[in-house]
Design a protein that fits this description.
Helix content: 40-55%
Bound molecules: pyridoxal-5'-phosphate
Family: Belongs to the pyridoxal phosphate-binding protein YggS/PROSC family.
Pfam families: Ala_racemase_N
Shape: globular
Number of domains: 1
Radius of gyration: 17 Å
CATH architecture: Alpha-Beta Barrel
Number of strands: 8
Function: Pyridoxal 5'-phosphate (PLP)-binding protein, which is involved in PLP homeostasis.
CATH class: Alpha Beta
InterPro entries: Ala_racemase_N (IPR001608), PLP-binding_barrel (IPR029066), PyrdxlP_homeostasis (IPR011078)
Keywords: Pyridoxal phosphate
CATH topology: TIM Barrel
């Protein structure tokens, strides 16, 4: 039987190979394990195998899992604190859950949401680490700001006291072939490179790009953080979800 630990090691090897192929050190690419729809026991298994960063899309589910993992005091000596990333859409009436429970939020595409997260971030926690979500390939209905909007939005977010802007995130649509996929990934990295040249934004260090199906291409383009769900935990079952 293939275990979560086996799959995790397989994904780590795939990241290292893709990085080597691109002439980048394997440590340049961070692995975010996307545990949405999977139980706390699956996160525990991955954490015991050494995984530290976990991503959740559905806020209530994520908050419950964060609490469940904290309550597993039997494994506390084995598992240093986990880092929790919100990678799902954030509505304005849900910002408090993100501000109070997560370490990162990847899907910021409006100043109003960023402002609320900054206002609601508890004083005893470090600043919330955030990425600006950019939409390089979709129409107006797709989440994410346009590349043209990115500079002004990034500079405004960077001024908020309780957020730390780390870079960009994107969820490109699948493309018909590898060359087209790579071209889209490169557009995301180009937005990041342009932001980093702006005053005050030279410390940006994160391109959150690539999932199970497109991680090799994303790493070739310059992704620094891949978000991998099914490649680690297996196929998702959404049937229990309203
Ligand atoms: C679900 C999800 C992932 C992981 O997708 P897989 O194809 O299972 O690797 C990555 N990023 C986001 C934003 C997601 O919603």
């Amino acid at each position: 039987m293939t275990t979560i630990a086996d799959q995790l090691h397989h994904v780590q090897a795939q990241i290292a190979a893709a990085a080597a192929q691109a002439g980048r050190p394997p440590a340049a690419v961070r692995l975010l394990a996307v545990s949405k729809t999977f139980p706390a026991a699956a996160v525990r298994e991955a954490a015991l195998a050494g995984q530290r960063d976990f991503g959740e899309n559905y806020l209530q589910e994520g908050v419950e899992k964060i609490a469940a993992l904290r309550a597993m005091t039997d494994i506390a000596p084995l598992i240093p604190p986990l880092t929790w990333h919100c990678i799902g859409p954030i509505q304005s009436n849900k910002t408090r859950l993100v501000a109070e429970h997560f370490d990162w939020a990847h899907t910021i595409d409006r100043l109003k949401i960023a402002q609320r997260l900054s206002d609601q971030r508890p004083a005893h926690l470090p600043p919330l680490q955030v990425c600006l979500q950019v939409n390089v390939d979709g129409g107006a209905t797709k989440a994410g700001c346009t590349p043209a909007e990115a500079a002004e939005l990034a500079q405004a977010i960077a001024r908020l006291p309780r957020l730390q802007l780390r870079g960009v995130m994107s969820i490109p649509d699948p493309q018909p072939d590898a060359a087209a996929m790579l071209a889209v990934h490169r557009q995301v990295v180009a937005v990041f490179d342009a932001l980093r040249r702006l005053p005050g934004l030279d410390g940006l260090d994160t391109v959150s790009l690539g999932m199970t199906a497109d991680m090799d291409s994303a790493i070739a383009a310059g992704s620094t953080l891949v978000r991998v769900g099914s490649g680690i935990f297996g196929a998702r079952d959404y049937s229990g979800r309203a």
